[in-house]
Each structure stands twice: as structure tokens, then as C-alpha cells.
Amino acid sequence: MRSDMLFGITEEAFSSFLLQANRRTLAETIRFFFEADDQTIEELRAWAGKARDKMYGKRVFFRALIEFSSWCKNDCYYCGLQRSNQNAVRYRLSDDEIISCCRTAYERGIRTFVLQSGEDPSYSDFRLCRLITEIKEQFPDSAVTLSVGERSPDSYQRLFDAGADRYLLRHESANEDHYRKLHPPTQRLCDRKRCLFHLKEIGYEVGTGFMVDSPDQTNETLADDFIFLRELKPDMIGIGPFIPHHDTRFAGYEFPSAKHTLILLSLIRVMLPGVLLPATTALAAADDRGFEKGLMAGANVLMPNASPLKHRDAYALYDHKPNEGKGTIEQWHQWVHWVESLGLQPDFSRGDSKMKQMDGER
Predict the structure, then answer these.
(1) Looking at the whole model, is its pTM more than 0.90?
(2) By CB atoms within 10 Å of each CB, which of 16, 115, 221, 276 scores lowest?
(3) Read out DSSP for 156-168?
């Protein structure tokens, strides 16, 4: 991509370009912005802001994150919760504890609960369905989002029938070779993609995403991520900088800046304006102003941690995760004030995706 292509172009035209570009052109575009000067990056941010505001206005949606189990059967090479990590602190919340977390968030106005865990076999379909039903009965105007990993199509259907509204399952890398460098042979990219398409077919609002600056990532593998996002058309895309964990094989890997994540947030927003795009906790871990910069780059979702304080340090996917202060349910009033100070509007509704307006009725 040449710099002179940016002059006089609108965000709609650039969106069309991103939706049609081939792998090579996407990789060149990503490289161009990674190497661009501050003025060019600011122009990209302006496009992203316009694209977001046309779909969602100035609204920033809140989701309460409840990390209910640190047990995981998988051995992802990058994750502090990997099965082989003997130093990981394991816990499981009871149903009553999870409901209590939901109530705390509900009392603060939040109407989406994100139930996230490792892939913990102890949470059977029966147990999760019972929990989902109880949440929906107590908080009927709320949305339940699950992030519990790969399951069978029948399992996903049962959870949906019990009342689950959304499902988050990050693909982490859409490039086969790159995926294998991050995961053991028992975990396959084709299985992950198959799960995502099953979830869409069932009727969930679906979220996916990937790590930025992960080991052996290239502009070409990032182009594959963009192509997969164009194909899947998810309702939510979560990306954040790769931050190493000290008990994994990537301990000592270079700690990233937020720069590339912020650029990719803006590119994704322009390419898929109707998507829900969070400013992630990992972004805040990489940059003290990560939440703010993420919103200014086109994000429109924040996910305060509503897990019990005593367990937050144990849910250690990566090092330096912020578990207190900004980004947590305890700092609710300060966070709302901070969002308003950016000229944005805190929105406590369910905050449903507008991807259907782009993709037609699914």
C-alpha cells in the first residue's frame, strides 16, 4: 500500500478495500501502518472512530467478566493455566458464588455477564445449563455470554436452549503453521474453526480474536486472521498484545507495546464497522492508558472484572494482569466518569451486535 492512496479516501472506501484485498495486499497494508508516522496513524484512528460512531454512536458497552474456574484440560503453550503448569493455583466457583458475582454487576447496571473459564470438564452441560437457567430467571433482562472452550455441537445447542446468548472462542491464529507453534498437536485449528461456525449456525452472537505480537507471528499470518474474520463475520472480536507468562515455554519473551494492537483495532473497526470491539485487559497490562487508547482506536466494549477478589490473581493467563483498580467492578464509578471524560457515553444495556445489519439476517 502506498501512502498517496490515503489522500482523499473515505473510511467507507477503505473498508471496501480491506474487505476485498487478497492476502498479499492485506499483509502489505498491515506492514504499511506498522511503519507509518504518527499523522498517518491518527488518520486511521479517525476513520475507525467515524466507522464506530456511524454504527453505535458514542456508546461504550460494559460486560461483567466472571472468571469461574482456573482448571483447564488443555496445554496451550502460552497460557499460565495450561494443564502442565504445576505452579498454577486452581479454584472453582460454586453456582452461588457465580450468581453473587452476577448480582454485584447487575446492581451496578451491567446487563451482560461473561462466564469465562479454562476448559474444565467438571462443568458438565447439565451443570452449566442449570446455572444459565438460574441466571436468566434472576436477571431476565440480561445477556449471558459463555467462554468455556471447544465443545460438541450438541453441547452448544443445549447451552443455547438453556438461555445462553453469546459465546466467545478466540481462534488465536488463523494460520495453520503458526497455530501449531502455539498449541500442542492435540489441539487443531480446524476444530477451533468448526466450533465457531457451529456456534453461528445455532444462533449465538459469536466472538473470536487473536493475540498480537505472539511468537513467530508475521504480517502474513495477520493477513490470514483478517481473511478468516471476513469469512466468519463474528459479532465480537477480541485482540490484545501477547504477554508472556513466566511458567510457560515463552517465559522471557519480549514484552510488547500496545502499538500494533491499537493499529489492528482500528483496521478491524474500519473493515467490519458493526462488530463489537473490546479494549481488552491485556491491552491495559501492556500500556497504563491501554483502555483509553483502545477506545480512541475504535473499540466500544469494556469488561470490568467482577470475579471474587481473592481468586483474581489465580486466573493468570499471562503476567502483569491488572486485577485491582481501573478495569474492575470495585472502581465502577471512577471508570464511568473516565469514559465520559473521553466524550463517550457509558451504556449499560445488553449492547447487542450490529453485524446483522452488515451481513443480513442469519
Answers:
(1) yes
(2) 16
(3) HHHHHHHT--EEE
